Amino acid sequence: MILFVPAVLLGALALIVFFLLRGLAAVLPGGRQWSGWRRVAVVPAFVCAATATAAYSMGVVILLLTMTVAEDGGTDSAPFPYNHPCREQLTGAVDYEVDFLTLRTECVMEDGARRTVDDVPQRLRLTAAVSAAGAAVLGGILLAAAGRTAPARVDQ
Questions:
Q1: Which of 13, 58, 70, 75 is found 20 to 30 A from 22 (Cα to Cα)?
Q2: Nearest CA-CA partner of 131 in 37, 59, 55, 40
Q3: pLDDT band at 149 (very low <50, low <70, confident <90, very high)
Q4: pLDDT tier at 76 (50, 70, 90 boundaries)?
């Protein structure tokens, strides 16, 4: 599981650099793909996409490290090691599940109830969600506006 951490970080870094370079290319002179008000709207869209990628990937890395701690084993590891979030924050946890979509760890209690622990900070989850929503809204506006532009007329 720990081997996925570098892969997630490298993939996220590649996406972040891609989004930032695309935003920079839209601002620099000679960027003919975006003109007028679209140039002003595309830069925040790419910045939001880069921010969402960075925040979400950091949350995934935290969850992967949480899973690595749980699978580590060793002395005093039943049901979890001493430094696992389910054991640090709750008493009576017997199992855990990781939800990568919402960036949460749910601990299963002895009575079957599920409780969420704070291993991924709320600010990180909120940053990922708001940035992804901002990129989606701005991207949708740009796509809708691109569909409304009339094709260039060719006179013969």
A1: 58
A2: 55
A3: low
A4: low
* d(C-alpha 123, C-alpha 140), whole Å: 25
User: Which token pair is 62?
Assistant: 């935290």
Q: How far apart are CA 119 and CA 60, in angstroms?
A: 11
- Residue 114: CB partners within 8 Å, gap ≥ 6? 97, 106, 107, 108
Give the mean pLDDT of 77-89: 73
Angle between helices 37-72 and 122-148 (to 10 degrees): 150
Q: What is the pTM of this model?
A: 0.79
**φ/ψ (deg, to 5) at 80:** -140, 160
Q: How far apart are CA 58 and CA 50, in angstroms?
A: 12
Three-state SS at 65: helix
Question: Taking the mean position of all CA atoms in its chain, how far away is CA 145?
Answer: 27
Coil, strand or helix at 57:
helix
